[in-house]
Amino acid sequence: MARCRVAILISGRGSNMVSLIEAARAPDFPAEIALVLSNRPDAAGLERAKAAGIATCVIDHKAHSTREDFEQAMDAALAEHAIAFICLAGFMRVLTDGFVERWAGRMVNVHPSLLPLFRGTQTHRRALEEGVLVHGCTVHFVVPELDAGPIIAQAAVPVVPGDTEERLAARVIVQEHKLYPQALRMICDGTARLENGRVAFSRGWDASGALRSPG
């Protein structure tokens, strides 16, 4: 089985990156993490990737006068490493419509909310302010509109009385680390695929389970 060559784009410590790298060590995993690319030379995730034996690359956005020049440099690095698919993992740069469209259907992101709720930033604070009792994370295809792409997978956690942003975020990120590799596997083995702007699945799943809060 030919494995899909994946690049992970990061800006910081890369905790979701590590979960993807670990999952890809399995012999039957349909993706190979071939490159970790960061826009920040001091991103802690770069050293973690090097320690795992993954090729790394820095394209410093501050060294480029425009976003288009920055993205052209990224495209060149991705082409050099024969990358077929991109996973965004804490990549803190807004991508242009042109870059997103070039990678349409080949770029995914993990977002810390149950989209379409709480697009953008400060998702845990906003969830607490709105008083929701269930929160979570979403893996989705990237489209030009922020956090609006077709949903591939979601995981939910309860919101409990007295929660702080930090405690809620800690529960959510545990699920991110499980969900992102699962979603990447489904995409690369053909279980999940884009059809007419939505994600279609080639198999069903058990629909009897539910998270209730209060539980």
Automatic annotation (TrEMBL):
The keyword Transferase applies. InterPro entries: Formyl_transf_N, Formyl_transf_N_sf, GART. N(1)-(5-phospho-beta-D-ribosyl)glycinamide binds at residues 14-16. Pfam families: Formyl_trans_N. (6R)-10-formyltetrahydrofolate binds at residues 67, 109. The record marks 147 as: Raises pKa of active site His. Keywords: Purine biosynthesis, Transferase. GO terms for cellular component: cytosol. NCBIfam families: PurN. Pathway: Purine metabolism; IMP biosynthesis via de novo pathway; N(2)-formyl-N(1)-(5-phospho-D-ribosyl)glycinamide from N(1)-(5-phospho-D-ribosyl)glycinamide (10-formyl THF route): step 1/1. Residues 5-184 form the Formyl transferase N-terminal domain. Its EC number is 2.1.2.2. Belongs to the GART family. It comes from Microvirga tunisiensis. The active site is at residue 111. One of its GO terms (molecular function) is phosphoribosylglycinamide formyltransferase activity. PANTHER family: PHOSPHORIBOSYLGLYCINAMIDE FORMYLTRANSFERASE. This is Phosphoribosylglycinamide formyltransferase. One of its GO terms (biological process) is 'de novo' IMP biosynthetic process. The keyword Signal does not apply. It catalyses: N(1)-(5-phospho-beta-D-ribosyl)glycinamide + (6R)-10-formyltetrahydrofolate = N(2)-formyl-N(1)-(5-phospho-beta-D-ribosyl)glycinamide + (6S)-5,6,7,8-tetrahydrofolate + H(+). Catalyzes the transfer of a formyl group from 10-formyltetrahydrofolate to 5-phospho-ribosyl-glycinamide (GAR), producing 5-phospho-ribosyl-N-formylglycinamide (FGAR) and tetrahydrofolate.
